[in-house]
Amino acid sequence: MDRRHAIYEWFRINHFKVDLTATCLLVLVFGPVYLLADRPLLFFISCGLLLPLAWRRTRPVVASGCVIAVCLIQWALAAEPVAGQIAVPLVIYATAAYGPAWASRTVLLAGLLGGIMLTTRLYSSTAESGIMGLTIGALYTVLIWMLVLVSWTLGDLTRVRRLQLQALEDRTRRLEIEQHQERQLAAADERSHIAREMHDIVAHSLSVIITQADGARYAAAAKPELATEALATIAATGRDSLGEMRRLLGVLRSDDDAPTRPQPRLSDLDELLLGFRAASLQIAFEQSGIPRRDLPAGAELTAYRIIQEALTNVMKHAGPKAVANVSLTWQGRGLQLDIDDDGRGAAADPPPAGGGNGLRGMGERISLYDGSLTAGPIQGGGFRVSAFIPYSEA
């Protein structure tokens, strides 16, 4: 089956080679007979009609023009029909199937007119006259017209089928390109999602661990019990971070046995704030208003991650003894988040070149829910992050 398909593909692609081989065979069959009969004029006419068939599919307009020109010369010389006249229906078919529309209509009209010219020439050169002669001439004309119309109709049907196949191939190619682009977009979106999750997990955990390690180092000599508490916090934070990383990597491996747990939501804020307070960050938390409806789980995760990232930045940039204020306000259109501090602000520790992944991740997260985010230093010192997440109306 594969060999047959390969042969078919070769014939379909190599039009000129196939047509040239067929033309050579026709010339060998229909040409030498006139040389043997010592009629060189008919030999040249027959070859002149057959040779253009080598280009009947690659250059149908040129091939049909050559055949029409040879037929006119044959008519002008009053030469009798030759075996090479088989090229006429073949070139009509090829032009209708592979040539432009105007060439297809032209060869159809030329074939019909040529039938009249041929029968008129034959009728005028014979001794027959009267009703019988007109009847025979009309019959010949109708037969030639039928041959021309059948050849042109088959060629036009071939054209329609070829255009349909070409349209299907183009559609398939476009679908493949679109699917490839969709896969690339999905992969890029998934990479961004993974980068945000890993940044939130690693940056938060490492900030707590670094803060506690510094505190334990300074307290080890004066107050060993504080160092012990700091080391316990470091161990707990490290275990939680390791569990989150294992969960994330397990999902990436598509391992059904990988442990998973629900993503954090606003109801888990108390645990989050407790962890920051254990890391010696002073936090004032305030929540006001009544939610008109529940936010989607993804929107609550976005709010949770924004608070987590903002407080992590406070620990990293605000300096010692900074106080952070977290405010959640339920409004008529959605949830307003405000996280600010009274420390040095981000200007004291500018991000490295190409950095700012935390703020960029916040913006990417909140844009998925048509929200807004602003972040910047506060006049007089400190830094503020404000975000608004609207309700997703059905």
Overview of this structure, please?
The protein is of the alpha+beta class. Among the domains are: 2-125, no CATH class; 264-394, Heat Shock Protein 90 (2-Layer Sandwich), CATH 3.30.565. It contains twelve helices and five strands. The protein has helices at residues 2-13, 15-30, 32-36, 40-50, 60-76, 87-98, 101-124, 130-222, 224-252, 269-278, 297-317, 357-367, and strands at 282-288, 323-330, 334-341, 372-377, 383-390. The protein has a five-stranded mixed β-sheet with strand order 1-2-3-5-4, covered by helices on one side. β4 and β5 form a beta hairpin. α8 crosses α11 (297-317) and α11 (297-317) packs antiparallel against α12 (357-367). The longest helix is centred in the middle third of the chain and has 93 residues, at 130-222. It is rod-shaped and about 130 Å long. Residues 351-355 have low confidence and may be disordered.
